[in-house]
Amino acid sequence: MPSPSPNPLSRIPAVDKVLVALAKVGGLPPLPQPLVTDLVRREIAAMRQRVQAGEGRVGDFEETVAFIKERIEALYRSRIHPVINGTGVCIHTNLGRSPLAPAVAEAVSQVGRHYNNLEFDLESGERGKRGGFLERCLALLCEAPAATITNNCAAALILILKHLAKGECNEVIISRGELVEIGGGFRVPEIMAVSGAKLVEVGATNKTSLEDYRRAITPRTGLILKVHRSNFYIEGFVGEPSAEELVALGAEHGLPVVEDLGSGAMVATELLAPIPHEPTAAEVLKRGVDLVCVSGDKLCGGPQAGIIAGRAEVVAGIKKEPFFRALRCDKLILAAMQETALAYLDAVATGERPDLPLLAMLAASVEDDLRPRGEALLARLGTSELFSVGLVPTIARCGGGTMPKAEIPSLALEIRPTQMKVPRLAGRLRDLPLPVVGYVEDDAFRLDLRTVFPEQDEALAAALLDVL
Ligand SMILES: *Cc1c(COP(=O)(O)O)cnc(C)c1O
User: Fold this and answer.
1) Whole-angstrom Cα distance, residue 66 to residue 72?
2) Most buried in the list 41, 229, 300, 317, measured by CB within 10 Å?
3) C-alpha 431 chain-centroid distance
C-alpha cells in the first residue's frame, strides 16, 4: 500500500537550506549575495503560492536547487551587458539603439573616471556654463544659430511645448496625419497632455491643407507643430502643405513653427547606403522652421539624447524653463555627444564618412565587406554532420523607428542544425556569456552580418561551434 502523500507544502525547502545547498553545488554566476538570497526567497514564496493554488508539484530537494540555480543564471543574464546583434536591424531599440564609437566610449570613460570641467570655466577659474562647447558643435552641425541637448527627443518635444505653448496661448496645431506613436508607446497627443499644451487636430489622416491650418489659428494658438513620420509612411491620396508654406502662415500670424524630426539624420543617408534620403536638421531649418528636435541615438549614431536646434532666443528660453533642469543630460552623455558631434565636424573638413559605427554599418558593401567575412566564417565553421551552414542574401533595416521603407541589401549566415530544433539553437545562443541574437526564417537560424561588428566574427564563430 502506498503511504499517504505528505502535505506538499511541508516539502518546500527552507530558504537557508537552499542557500547552503547552492553554495555547495558551486558554479553560480558572480552576483552579490543579497540578490541571490532575495531570488531564493522569491522563488520559494512563489512555489508555496503555486502549491496552495493547487498548481504544480514540488520536486525533490535536488530538483528544487537545480531549478533555483537556473533562475539565478537567468537573473545574471538579465543584467545589461553586450550582445552580438545578428538581426540585421541597425538601430535596434531592444538592443540599445546606436552603438557608440570606441573614441566616444573612451571619452565617456575618461570623463566618468576623473573630475572634469562640466560646469567650470577654466579661463576665469569660476563657475562655467554646462555643455557650452557641445552646444556650439551641435549648432554648427545643424547649421543653426543655437542648439542645446536634453535627455531624449521626447523630452525635447515636451520642453519645446512647455516653452512655446503655455498660459493663454497653449493651443498647438497639428495635422491628424502626424498624431504618431513614437517608440515605447509614447504618443504625440499624450506628450501634449503631459506638457500642458492643448492639441488642436486639423485635416484628415491622409490629407491636410494649408487652409486647415489657417482656420485653426485663434488668439490662443501657441505654435504650429510638424511631426516627421519617421516610423511609418502613408501613400496614395495624400497631401500636406510644405514646410515653407507653414512657415509663411506662421509668420503671418506671428506663430513659431516647430518640426519634430525624430530620426536625426545628420548626413545624406542616400550617400551612405542604397536607401532614401532622410531630411537632416540643417535642411529642415533652411526651410525656415523656428526649431527642430531630433534623437541622438537614432540615425545620428550617438548616445540617447534629444537635440534642439534653431532660433537663438527660443533655444535660450527653453534652457530657462524650470523643467529643463529635470531633463538635462549628465556628464557622460555630454561627453559622448561631444565626441559624436566632433566626428561629424571632422568629416566636414575631410569630406569622408564620419567615423561612427552606425554609419559604417549602413555603408558596408555586401560584396566587398560582408561576403569576404561570410566566406571566412564558413571556412572557420567547416563542415559537420551536426549542421549545415551557408550564406543567403537578406534585407537589413535601419530600425529604431526610422525609415521603415528602407531596405538595405545584406548577407546572412544561415544555419540549419541537424541535432536540435532551430528555436533551441536560438535559445542556447542567447544564453551565452556574450549572447548572440539572430532571427528565424525559412526554418533556419539567420545571423545578418551587417549588424555584427567585424571584430566580433571570431567570437561569433566560436559561439556557434560551441553551441552546435
Ligand atoms: C523617435 C522619435 C521621437 C522620440 O525620440 P526619443 O529620443 O526616443 O525620445 C520623437 N519624435 C519622432 C518623430 C521620433 O521618430
Assistant:
1) 10
2) 300
3) 22
Residue nearest ligand 1's atom 2 by CA: 262
> What are residue 234's phi and psi, to 5 degrees?
-125, 145
Residue extent(s) of CATH 3.40.640.10 domains in the chain: 99-355
User: What is the reported pLDDT for 45?
Assistant: 95
Atom in ligand 1 nearest the alpha carbon of residue 157: 10
Pocket test for ligand 1, best of 150, 230, 297, 299 (most atoms within 8 A of CB): 230
Placement of cell 549614431 in the chain = 301
> Ligand 1 atom closest to Cα of 229?
13
* pTM beyond 0.90: yes
Task: Give distance in angstroms: CA of 421 to centre of ligand 1.
Answer: 38
The protein residue with its alpha carbon nearest to ligand 1, atom 5, reads 153
Mean pLDDT, 10 residues at a time, over the chain (468 residues)? 65 94 94 97 94 86 95 97 98 96 98 98 96 98 98 96 95 95 81 92 95 98 94 88 97 98 92 93 97 97 98 98 96 98 94 96 98 98 95 96 92 97 97 97 97 98 96
| 417 Cα–ligand 1 center, Å | 40
- What residues have CB less than 8 Å from 209, skipping those under 6 apart? 203, 239, 240, 241
Position 225 scores a pLDDT of 97
With a Cβ cut-off of 6 Å, ligand 1 is lined by 152-154, 182-183, 227-228, 230-231, 260, 262-263, 295, 306, 401
DSSP 374-425: HHHHHHHH---SSEEEEEEEEEEEEETTB-TT--EEEEEEEEEESSS-HHHH
pLDDT of residue 173: 98
Looking at residue 1, its pLDDT comes to 47
Domain(s) of CATH 3.90.1150.110: residues in the chain: 84-94+362-467
The fold adopted by the segment(s) 84-94+362-467 is Aspartate Aminotransferase, domain 1 (3.90.1150)
Q: What is the pLDDT of residue 251?
A: 98
Options 3.30.413.10, 3.40.50.300, 3.40.640.10, 3.30.70.330; which CATH number does 99-355 get?
Answer: 3.40.640.10
Residue owning the nearest CA to atom 12 of ligand 1? 262
Q: What is the pLDDT of residue 2?
A: 52
Q: How far is CA 266 from CA 131, 235, 284, 292, 345, in A?
A: 20, 25, 11, 13, 10
- pLDDT at position 264 is 87
Q: What is the whole-number distance in angstroms between the Cα of residue 229 and the centre of ligand 1?
A: 10
Neighbours of 459 (CB within 10 A): 16
